[in-house]
Amino acid sequence: MSPLAETAAPGIGYTPVSGKGDIERSVRALRPLRIALVAPLYEAVPPRLYGGTERVVAWLADALTELGHDVTLFAAADARTDAKLVAVRACAMRLDPAPLKSDFAAHLTLLEEVRRQADRFDVLHFHIDMLHFPFFEARAKRTLTTLHGRLDIDDLPQVYRRWPDFPLVSISNSQRIPLAFANWIGTVYHGLPEHQFRFTARPRGGYLAFLGRISPEKRPDRAIAIAARNGVPLRIAAKIDAVDRAYFHKCIEPLMDNPLVEYLGEIGDAEKSDFLGNALALLFPIDWPEPFGISMIEAMACGTPVIAWKCGSVPEVMEDGITGRIVASDSEADEAVRTISAIDREGVRRVFETRFSSLVMARNYLALYERVAARGAAEDRVQAS
Predict the structure, then answer these.
(1) Whether 71 contacts 108, CB under 8 Å
(2) CA-to-CA distance for 45 and 82, rounded, in angstroms?
(3) Fewest CB atoms less than 10 Å from the CB: which of 99, 200, 251, 284?
């Protein structure tokens, strides 16, 4: 176990910041840091449509810059950021019209550019899973790696045992469970800018919302069933990946014949305030160990309560009876639909501002950056003596 992990407090390994006053008081005590954020190249930063990791990296880059730090973002050239941009590809890969492209080659180019400039930074913060491990082994303790995906996957344990010196950050405590032995030094929940989405005190739509991706683990079929049983319209705004098209055509498309169901396709951030804000609730009926679930906090930012299945990170992100309802059965979901209007939408928004703003996220990352940078400075002194 690395010295960083030994000093981590139980659980999340830091004291979370909440509230603007706490952020402002704590930031004044910090020296500006030189931070490299390394984003994947699959989506623009932030994505034009669907996309989680790149969206979080965009929010983090802007918040760290707002707090006075020297931030450089390594990403595709179509990124929109307040940080300095090092563009390593002309555009992100998913919406690139080129018929033939190699994500492996593109990310090798990304890694080489980060390695070439690495000495400029106090901290290298990677958001590309474990791709960088063989390339940055000699400076592992000067890095931070946030893992954004599910970890209950074959082959992952061997990787994290082979490269144990890389400090890791989880996006929920539940995400860690399959790799409990790994070098976790903190959990930092996602956060988005307070101005990103508009608060709606009185929704006008009278519908339930489903936002994200059409896939078996996201359970759009369960969302449709909930709406049908309760006689409430359901609007679905979701993308369909190539790997999920057969599932969509076989299992979901026939269910959309119900007149209560409206499929909108994939939407971007500009449309989410209306879509989420005017919904009675967001349905989050997942059936997998969701590491975080950004759509939950997007709904909270609009003041919209969430009806979420008790799975993965949901009990960490949600506050039952405050930001919505956590359910574990169809009957509980139906009861939640019937009573969801009793949730105080202003209270939902307050929880978002306190726990899930991008400034709160940035401050919690800064606490970890300081530890990484201090460790690197100490190693420099030892080597120089």
Answers:
(1) no
(2) 11
(3) 99
What is the rounded distance in angstroms from the CA atom of residue 219 to the CA atom of residue 230? Answer: 17
**Which CATH number covers residue 329?**
3.40.50.2000
Average pLDDT value for the chain: 90
Residue 198, in any domain of the structure: no
Residue 31 has pLDDT above 50, yes or no: yes
- Taking only the tens place, the pLDDT of each residue in 184-207 is 999 999 999 999 999 999 999 999
Q: Helices 330-339 and 220-230 sit at what angle, rounded to 10 degrees? A: 60
CA-based end-to-end distance of the chain: 25
What is the distance between the alpha carbons of residues 233 and 108, in angstroms, rounded to a whole number? 46
Q: Are residues 88 and 33 in the same domain?
A: yes
Of the chain, the percentage scoring pLDDT greater than 90 comes to 83
CA distances from 326 to 20, 112, 215, 314, 320 (A): 28, 45, 21, 8, 6
Residue 113 near residue 137, CB atoms below 8 Å: no
Residues of the domain holding 156 = 3-193+358-384
pLDDT more than 70, % of the chain: 90
- Please tell me whether residues 33 and 173 are part of one structural domain: yes
- Same domain as 98, residue 132: yes
Tell me, yes or no, whether 336 and 364 share the same domain. Answer: no
Q: What is the total count of domains within the chain?
A: 2
3-state secondary structure of 343: coil
